[in-house]
């Protein structure tokens, strides 16, 4: 199909006499410290510019990448919000932003939370992702200089990290006569990877149920793709129907005193976007309230989020149970259900959003244009896309018990589908889920030794339910 891929054919021809690169999927490296202040979230590590400025970026979104600039750190300076690394824009200013005059609206940074500030200025620079093909020149970036998240209380909070673009439908992005490179297209044209495509499972940094992240360009790890794979035409940032949202018990006793399985979604189906650049489950208030009325949660009006009542025994039972929030997405008759275990929904808010860390449930009721399933959802979902055949895929991703690394699968430019592994999803969680009857037995045994506490601060083995274990909950750098 040479006429459909002129950019690619041209570069492939001109490269024919050069030494061929590996032509294999490339796996990105992950930052060792997760980012907050509402995670912890896994992030990838990139080096930008000739100075190799190191940054942890969340992978997600299309077109340009966003980076936090170093002078942005002077805002809200009493809170450390720049430890994921920043970009010095000196060169951008010297080069008059390469002449790029396009300025995306603030909410292009993330869709699931309101963003205020000026439109973002842009620049381009080289990105080192640690791949065989070397650095990728002229990657476009929005510069986060004056943009803040605004919550229902009207307060402005700083961004803690940028977002690494996964690609776009066009091989290059152009602003007047300036052309910038789209990472997977460039790598494919350069013959570093088999096609302009990617496979992503962000995984989870939640303490006790960590799942390492996996991001490949040109392919995917089949062990991250479990069960039925739902395919869509177009680009992964498109809108898709959420058909049902249920609380389910998938293993062991129920921690709930109601019959689970009822559809709690208001507005059926609800058209949503998946956006890994956004943190929450940004859903209509009525849907969040349906969930909150069944779970030990207290609404935080100012933030539009829900705090777990960690003193409630039901909270502890839920966090030890094999229960999930089950999202059914797709068209009628062509659906996939993604289970997000409640352990991954015990996330942490940190300063400046709160004074001291608290556990929260990420249903977000703030005003957003389109409902968004953000990173909280993507902890347990695989998203892949082939930008050449214009197909993308969604599937259940595994829990903490990952199988030993297996063969990586390539995505070829003509591929319309991908195949997952035959791994049983529940088996990747079963060791985490303490059967509730075991937990109750522990509590009972404990009760004979210590004074049982109805507010749950006294636990078997002398642990405390809401101790801060300090294992990477805070934001950090990637050094
Ligand atoms: C952060 O800085 C911005 C800009 O100065 C300010 O408007 C906002 O109130 C600050 N936010 C917090 C939480 O201090
Ligand atoms: C990067 O962009 C600049 C400015 O448009 C151009 O001169 C240069 O050739 C480009 N470099 C590459 C490797 O594409
Ligand atoms: C791939 O990119 C590297 C670094 O930019 C360059 O040296 C090499 O020639 C390119 N290879 C091909 C096949 O285009
Ligand atoms: C929930 O998360 C908090 C951190 O915010 C952690 O300290 C606590 O142990 C977790 N609770 C359970 C029951 O896993
Ligand atoms: C704890 O007390 C309960 C009720 O009195 C009793 O049935 C159980 O055997 C006791 N457990 C231990 C370990 O003593
Ligand atoms: C919770 O339990 C702790 C320890 O048993 C106790 O000190 C505290 O007063 C209790 N709080 C409430 C609100 O009951």
TrEMBL record:
Identify the stretch(es) annotated as Disordered. Answer: 444-479
Peptidase A1 domain residues: 42-395
Q: Would I find Transit peptide among this entry's keywords?
A: no
Please, which domain of life does this record's source organism belong to? Eukaryota
Show the ranges annotated as biased composition (Polar residues): 464-479
UniProt keywords (A-Z) are: Signal
- May I ask which residue range the UniProt record assigns to the signal sequence? 1-21
Q: Which InterPro entries match?
A: PEPTIDASE_A1 (IPR033121), Peptidase_aspartic_dom_sf (IPR021109)
Q: Which Gene3D superfamilies match?
A: Acid Proteases
- SUPFAM superfamilies, per this entry? Acid proteases (SSF50630)
Q: Where are the transmembrane segments?
A: none
Q: What is this protein called?
A: Aspartic peptidase domain-containing protein
Taxonomic classification:
Eukaryota, Fungi, Dikarya, Ascomycota, Pezizomycotina
